[in-house]
Structures are given as C-alpha cells and as structure tokens.
C-alpha cells in the first residue's frame, strides 16, 4: 500500500541516488582529465617507443569515458523526472488523505442527522460518492507510480547496460611496465595466489621495486608475492605510518605497543612481516624461520581481542613454537583478520560473538595458505586457538589446502564432526587444557575434543593457572601442550589425550540418548498408513522416556562419582 | 637541464599527480529499498555498480600509469648520470 510518507521517502532516495551518480561521474572525470593531460603533455618531453605505448594505452583507457558521461546525463534526467513525479504524487496523496478524512467526518454527521430526520438521504449518498472518488484517485495514483517506476527502471537498466565495463573486472591491467593488480579486486576477490606468484616472477626487478615503492600496502598483503618482498613493502608502510602518526593519537599508541620499543620510529630489522594494515584494530602477520626452506610450516591463528597493539603476545607464542620444533618448522603468527573484540574476558561478552568474523577471516586465511603453498614445499599446519579455531574451520570449508589442522581451547568449530570438512587427506587434531573453561562452552558447535567429533585428541596437561580463563591462554607456554603442537607440526605423533573419568561415564549415555533420539525421529517421520497412531505415540513416548532416563542416570552418576572418582583414578593410575 | 633531466623531472611530477588522483576514494553506493518495488531498485543498483566499476578500473589504470612514469623517470635519471 502506497502512502504519501513512503512516496516522499522514495523521492528522497532518488535524490540521494542522483547525487551519488553525479559524484561518481565527477570522480571518473577527475581521474580521466589528468591522465589525458599527462599523455598529451608527455609528447613534449618524452619520446621513443615506450612513450608511444604509454600514450596509446592512455588513449585506449580514456576512450569509453565520454560514453559514460552521456549515460550519466541521461540517467540523471530520468532520475530527476521520476523524483519530481514522486514528490508531486506524494503531495496529492496527502491532500486526498486530508479530504477523505473530512468527507468521512461529514458522512458520520450526515448519518446522525438523517437518523434524526433533519437531513436528506441524498446528502449521505453524495458524500459516499465523493469518498469513493477519492479512493479511486488514490488507487490510480498508486497504479501510475508503479507504471512510471517500472518505465524508469527499464530506461535506467538500458542506460546502465550502455556503460562499457571491462568484463574481467581488472585483476590485472596491462601497461608497458608490466601488470598491476587492481587494489579493489585484490581486496575483494582475492586473486589466485598461484597466478600472482607467476605474475610477480615474470616482472622485471625494476617493476617489482617500483610496485613495492608505489603501492606497498597492496604488495605487502598480496598472497602469492614472496615473503621477502612482502616484508620489504610492509616495512615501507610501517615507516609511513610511524612518520605520519601524531604523537598521542590512537595509531601512534597502537604502533608504540606493536613495535614493543621505547622509540616507535624503529622497527626491529630482524623481524619479518608478511601482513600489515594499520586500519581499524590492525592486521599483521610475522614469520619465524624460512618457509621457503623449512620442511614444515605452521600458521597460528588467534582468537578474540587480537589486535596490532597486542600482537606481541601471539608473536612470542609463534617464536616459542618455532624454537620448540627445533627450528624445523617455520611458524607464522597470523592476525590477518578482524577478530571480535572483547571488552572483558567474561562468558557474557564471549557469548555475544558471532561466527561472522570467523567466516571472513577463514576466507582470508584460505588465500594466505595458498600463498604459502606458492613458496613452500613443506607440510602446512593451521593451528587455531579459541575463536581462531572457528576461523581455521571456516578456512577449511573455504577450501584451504592444509596437511594438518589443530584446534586448541576451542568453543566449537561450527561443525558436528570432521566429516563436515571437505574430503581430503587433512588430519584433524584437538586438545584442551584441563579446566580451560572456554574449551567446554560449545558456543559454536560440539567440543572438537569430544570423541564423536572424530579429531585425534592429544594431551595438553592440567595448566598452571587457578583461574580457568588463565588456563585458556597456556597452550603456548612451556610444557606438554606446546611440545605436542611441535610434534604435530613436524609430522610426529603427539601424546594421546586423557579423557576425564566423567567422559568415560557420559559417553555411553550420550550414545544411548543419540540412538533413542534417532528412533524417535524415525517414528515421527514415518508415514506408513497401517501403523496405528497410538502405536506411534507409544513408540515416541518410550523413546522419549529412554532419553530422559539416560539423562537422569547420567546426572546421578556424575553427581555421585564425578570428581571423587576422578581423583581416585588419578591416584591409582597416575593419569 | 639535459633532455634526460627534463624527462626525469616531468615524469616524476606527472607520476605524483596521477598517484594522487588514483588514490582518491570512490563514492559509496546508496542503500535503498523503494516502495515501488524491486525493478527500480535493481536498475539503479546496476547503474551505480557499473559506474563504480568504471571508476575503480580507471583508478587502477592511473596507478599503473604512475608506476610506468616513475620507472621512466628513474631510467632517465640513471642514463643521465
């Protein structure tokens, strides 16, 4: 149902669109004119075949611009006409509404006076006729607007189709100096890292240097470009950020913490950064070891609250894992995605997290992993900690090519079991430090250390902290957890996990519950006509009772023997 | 100033100009939902997306042209010395 308010809103949106179209067209002109000017001007001072190619390319690039200008002129005319009509019709609808209200009031009064014998029935009929006429006009306006909007849509669609757009939206643009990756395409479509690696290898040294100097923010984060070049580009970006940051500004503070030094204008020359973007909370990744030479490469993916400012924590964890592996594995600390931020490390705040950032991060991680494959023949292990385990799982679902995947302290990885991941030879591992509260939350699906999940569960010890949240952060401290991680990363077998006694008790009960639930579901889904309804109801009741009884038995057992029995077993068997 | 010196100077300054225009942001697309229904919405979205694509492609070309000019400037500078 159309209303004057809604139509006025449409007119406002049309005006905003008109302005946006004009703004984009203006920007196109602002870009085209300098290029045309430079190409023309260069005739006076730059000669030779290379300059001729430059000018020819510029001419080809600028050729479609006039037709874009014509299309924009036509489109804005249609938009303005449609907007004016919407405004006029909205005004008329408002009038109709006001007149309709007045007529209805008159009608009510006429009916009252007719009933009292003081007015003629003709008055009532005349007013009803007026109201009906107004209703008809309202309907006609609605139909007219609908028709005009459809015509405008048709015209705009034709105008849009006349705008020449490169059918392959610019992953690469050919210029005499080589190929350039489109910044937007690089950010949105993430070109194939293998193609990027091939393209980068065929550039001349001076072209590569020119790109590193001119667009360091792109090269430094471009998956497929060798890590040494990415590091050089990122160093330039960092220096630009450091030089441009106002002392005391958020960026300055963030960089001061990131560089972990008193003098923020110094970046440790021994560190190597293969991702760097200071925007927002910041993205960064650092390499320990040489992925090009190492037999094994591991990527550490952190969870909530990871930022550029506190990257030092993840960096130290990666360095420790690199050392624990006997420097056989190159380890990359990767905060290459915007992690959910935590105001305080409480269950309430954690629960507010969604899997949205993990999904986005997972896509980025998939491309990053592909980039590693272009320069390493070693095995690749993705290790997710906490929320980062969900990010790693999403990367696998996006098609990441990893030999091994490890979930540590996971609140769930968005799948019921490992069969939900794409088929392939990838091995899945999971672990939790005893008493790590986050690892038992199951906010994003079943605990991956649950035997039903199907991952190889390995031991991470008991943890040292009394605070369960502190335990959540101890996987990379010295101890059995990091030793097992190093074993997995280098292709060895970790120490098997120690199931709690409670899990030995609850696991069969959960199996009974699962089986009973499946029977109940099958009975509910059954549409065999010969089966009496009461039999179905009875069967459902029996299975429901089985589920409830199993649950009650489990609760009783847990309550009665729980921690006491566990202590006994620990004492008896030394687990 | 030598001919190569002029190439160095002019190419470098042209590269700076083009880089400045290449890095200017593309205007944002208007979010909308018309009472008149989806055809107008879809057509305007297509129009805006096409214009944005043209603008982004042009920005890309400008960056590439700036790189080319900068490379030419450096080569001329080396040859001049």
Structural class of chain B: mainly alpha
Distance between the termini of chain A: 71 Å
Q: What helical percentage do the residues of chain A reach?
A: 55-70%
Strand residue content of chain A: 5-15%
Radius of gyration from the alpha-carbon trace of chain A, in angstroms? 34 Å
The order of strands across the largest sheet of chain A is 3-4-6-5-7-8-9-10
Order of helices and strands of chain B: HH
Portion in strands of chain B: under 5%
How far apart are the first and last residues' alpha carbons of chain B, in Å? Answer: 12 Å
Q: What's the helix-strand series of chain A?
A: HHHHEEHHHHHHEEEHEHHEHEEEHHHH
Chain pair sharing the greatest interface: A-B, 72 and 55 residues
Supply the number of helical segments of chain A. 18
Describe what is shown at a glance.
Chain A is α/β, with parallel strands linked by helices and 575 residues long. Helix content of chain A is 58%, strand content 9%. Chain A contains 18 helices and ten strands.
Question: How would you characterize the overall build of this protein?
Answer:
The complex is a heterodimer of chains A (575) and B (81). Chain A is α/β, with parallel strands linked by helices and 575 residues long. Helix content of chain A is 58%, strand content 9%. Chain A has helices spanning 4-42, 49-62, 65-115, 121-162, 183-188, 193-202, 205-214, 216-219, 227-244, 250-259, 311-324, 347-351, 356-373, 387-397, 468-471, 480-489, 501-525, 533-573; strands at 172-175, 178-181, 272-277, 283-288, 296-301, 329-335, 379-385, 404-408, 427-431, 456-457. In chain A, a hairpin with a 2-residue loop joins strand 1 (172-175) and strand 2 (178-181). With 81 residues, chain B is mostly helical. Chain B is built from 2 helices and no strands. Chain B has helices spanning 3-22, 38-80. The longest helix of chain B is centred in the last third of the chain and has 43 residues, at 38-80. Chains A and B meet through helix 1, helix 2, helix 3, helix 4 and helix 7 of A and helix 1 and helix 2 of B.
